[in-house]
Design a protein that fits this description.
The chain is mainly α and 323 residues long. The chain has a domain at 89-123 and 199-319. The chain has 14 helices and 2 strands, in the order ααααββαααααααααα. β1 (80-81) and β2 form a beta hairpin. The protein starts with a helix and ends with a helix. The mean pLDDT is 82.
Length: 323
């Protein structure tokens, strides 16, 4: 398994370097930079701007700037955020936990419903519940997440039971520990539903198709002939093989949720990396954009590696494949 993981890392590390290099290149070829706002400020002298350029190596060629940034990152220095006037690492870590809570909530909610819905739809093929789930899946896949966010916000205004945005209430600090958890849970309802519905609908259809294919396999027919119970055939033999392709999707979804949560965070006012990333791009805050992209790339690599490890655990043929 260690050799298997090492081989996967050899493929994933160049991907991470390529993502950061391309992002750095696109930011640099865009017209202007954050220091333009300082140059237009009559209260800031040109010498001050020049000091900033020399301090952060912004007066050097593009390749030198990237290599300096990469060297600093390897030493644990992610750079300085001009817009927040603090270290990039502090800005990212202060918001990453919030995004992680939202993404983890959506991930757990998604997979709790995907497996039972996919199995039920496959076992009840052609019946009313299968047709209903298919219709619901088409509808859920077709509706964009931002439109779902507006729909849920509109519905929440009539009931008043669910908070309309943000991560916590105004009097959050006055609540007990249990009260804080309940308050956070209420604020998670809408963003979790918005992020989960599309994933549930698409993955449920994938699992349904996989289950139908596996249930028609010769070894399942042999298991039925030997008198093995239907419950064991479905949930031990068939489901284990049908869920294998979904493990790869799980790895991609882990990182995709964190990036896909950005738009939902902005609409619902969730204080996560999405709002930070939007502000950084708008203000051309170079090192903050790079830090956020690097974090997303690391999560993508981690998600892929996690999927490979899970596939290696569940399917020894993949673990022992020749490089």
């Amino acid at each position: 398994m260690c050799r298997f993981i090492f081989r996967r890392l050899l493929f994933l590390l160049p991907l991470l370097l390529g993502v950061t290099f391309l992002t750095f290149f696109l930011i640099k070829i865009a017209p202007g930079d954050f220091l333009d706002s300082l140059r237009l400020n009559p209260q800031i002298s040109p010498d001050t701007v020049k000091i900033y350029e020399q301090k952060f190596h912004l007066d050097k060629p593009f390749a030198i700037q990237y290599l300096v940034w990469l060297k600093n990152v390897l030493q644990g220095d992610f750079g300085y955020s001009f817009s927040h006037k603090t270290e990039v690492f502090r800005v990212i870590t202060s918001r990453l936990f919030n995004t992680f809570i939202l993404s983890l909530s959506a991930l757990i909610f998604t997979w709790i419903f995907v497996i039972p819905l996919g199995v039920v739809s496959a076992l009840k093929k052609g019946k009313f519940i299968d047709k209903f789930l298919s219709y619901f899946s088409y509808l859920g896949i077709s509706v964009p997440s931002f439109l779902l966010a507006f729909i849920f916000l509109y519905l929440a205004t009539f009931t008043g039971w669910i908070p309309l945005g943000g991560m916590r209430s105004v009097r959050f600090d006055e609540f007990t520990f249990l009260g804080k958890i309940l308050d956070l849970g209420k604020h998670l309802i809408i963003p979790t539903l918005v992020l989960s519905i599309g994933s549930i609908c698409s993955l449920q259809r994938v699992l349904r198709a996989n289950m139908l294919e596996v249930l028609g396999s010769p070894y399942i027919l042999g298991a039925k002939a030997r008198g093995i119970s239907k419950w064991r055939i479905v949930y031990v033999h068939a489901l284990k093989n049908a869920v294998n392709p979904l493990i790869t999707i799980f790895g991609y979804q882990f990182s995709a949720l964190l990036s896909g949560a950005a738009l939902v965070e902005i609409i619902l006012g969730w204080p996560g990396l999405g709002t930070v990333m939007l502000e950084a791009v708008q203000s051309q805050d170079l090192y903050l954009v790079m830090g956020a992209i690097l974090m997303g790339g690391v999560l993508l690599v981690f998600g892929n590696l996690l999927a490979d490890i899970l596939l290696g655990i569940f399917d020894p043929r993949i673990r022992h494949e020749k490089s």
